[in-house]
Amino acid sequence: MAILIPLALGLLGGFIWLRKVGTREPGLPPGPPTVPLLGNLHIFPTEFAHYKFTEWARQYGGFYSLKMGPGTAIVLTDAAAVKELMDKRSGSTVDRPPMHVAELVAGGLNVVLARYTENWRTLRRTAHAILTPQASARHLPIQQAEATQLLHVVLYAHTTLSSNSVILSDLYGKRAPRYETPETTAFFKAQHEWELVLKPGATPPVDLIPILKYVPERWAKWKRDCTKTRKLQRDLYWIVGRNEGETNEGRGKRQLYGGDIDKAARVWDGSRNHWLMLTVRYLGGVLIEGGSDTTSSYLQSLILAMIAYTDTQKKAHEEIDRVVGEHRMLTLDDLEHMPYIRATILEIHNFRPVAPLMIAHATLAPEEVCVPWSNEHPSLILHSKYKSYIIPEGATIFVNAWGIFHDPALYDDPESFNPDRYLFTENGTKPGVDGSDLRANFAFGVGRRICPGIHLAQNSININTMNLVWAFNFTTDTDAGGNPIESDTFDYQKGILTGPKPFRAKITPRTAEKAEIIEREFLEAADTFSKFEFGLSPEEKEFVVQSRAH
Ligand code: HEM
Known about the structure:
Elements: H1 4-20, H2 49-60, E1 63-68, E2 71-76, H3 79-88, H4 100-106, H5 118-130, H6 133-138, H7 140-152, H8 156-172, H9 182-198, H10 221-242, H11 248-257, H12 260-270, H13 274-308, H14 310-323, H15 339-351, E3 361-362, E4 367-371, E5 387-391, E6 396-399, H16 401-405, H17 421-424, H18 454-471, E7 472-475, E8 477-478, E9 484-485, E10 506-509, H19 512-524, H20 526-531, H21 538-547
Parallel strand pairs: 2-6
Antiparallel strand pairs: 1-2, 3-6, 4-5, 7-10, 8-9
This protein binds protoporphyrin IX containing FE.
The site of protoporphyrin IX containing FE (HEM) has 29 residues, from α5, α13 and α18.
């Protein structure tokens, strides 16, 4: 009998606690109604989450909460809220939410997903040192050369190859002449496996129900998939850095033109510390992955927008013709004279951001924020008239870039692609609206997690946007019966990072002279390419010879 009373009390306590799980705690900002235990998990979108998050933002405001079982997520769809919480208080919002799968695969060495740990700080510092504006400027010749190759072989897949090749050259001093180059295909294979493991639903909710971590591997296919991906990544990252069987020619070129990761790897290898050697290999691998798909998704969205919005294409053509004319390709210096092209670049980031929800952050400490009572379009101001909310420690924070970029309160007709809006106000907002909480590089993230590849990416984006528009007409393709195949500007890949699904397009040089210039520039770029070409397979060599035999 004596034991029954504490047992009953314990059960009652447990029952009361369980009933509270999933309930929105006092002090949290509002959000969709919750159900016991799950909170909002039963309505949490597993794909294209930015659409649902935006719908909720229009209903609950730019600062609302979701309950994920016992955990909390905050969704920010308000530029002032982002500036205050993510930029100004970035010391507290720098963490990433726990992700057991990423731990299993990368062991805390994936700089993008790593928690706020000593590992992340080392990786981040190294990435910064490698990707400074000055270092990015040093890599401009190969970026410009790759732009000529992109023009030379404008294929769908090639936008991906171009950015992969740029980053391979920048980091390791070795380019990828074609899509089938072994390093390139190996990277895309490893990345595909990685995406499968990260896909919502591919693993049970281990981060919410931690006991699932202890299921033995033989009963958990997801754990075997993680082990396979871990091996695939480590083998690949190690091979790219190690250059087994490297010839004297290769060694010489790498020493002269090799990238900074390559140099760091040499120094860190000298330390004979396996952990450091692995860390630098991981950083190289993750930067290549992070830098390949993002820039190419941007370029694919550009082409899609040019096809769908012919009036914009016409204006972009006119500006380039007026400023540089027919007779030469464009370099980075030309951009400052072309406001419409600059506006087009900004508008692509807004229209179809590569990372519509950025990458989720998490809080290291509780944060108090004040929001106007109406919460219709909150801006975070610390003032007594405002209602105060508490974001708990460990909360996940989603920055809903899509919702901000498509907010009708900020932009006129936000669903259309309209670069002109940037010609009237600095951040493209409609007249009379204060857009000062936005910034031109908003699509690259926030606070201390802002994209470290931003300078390299912006150089690639600028050079390629100008030259693609200078060189080509982009139009809808036609079917066998001659009917136009309309492109769908909403047909995008699922995932944290997104880009258009393959689409049909007709891309033709604007004039015969331009086609000749592209041909000539491509042949002249051979000198630059050759500095980054070594250890090629016989097929690669044959491809290189054939493609330059004109
Ligand atoms: C169109 C091009 C690109 C866009 C739009 C883009 C965007 C982003 C965004 C939104 C984030 C998340 C920031 C946050 O959590 O607040 C990010 C992180 C990151 N990006 Fe980029 N990125 C691009 C190109 C690149 C390139 C070229 C590289 C490598 C050279 C790169 C490397 C990274 C890395 C390593 C992170 C993780 C940073 C961290 O968590 O500390 N990105 N990027």
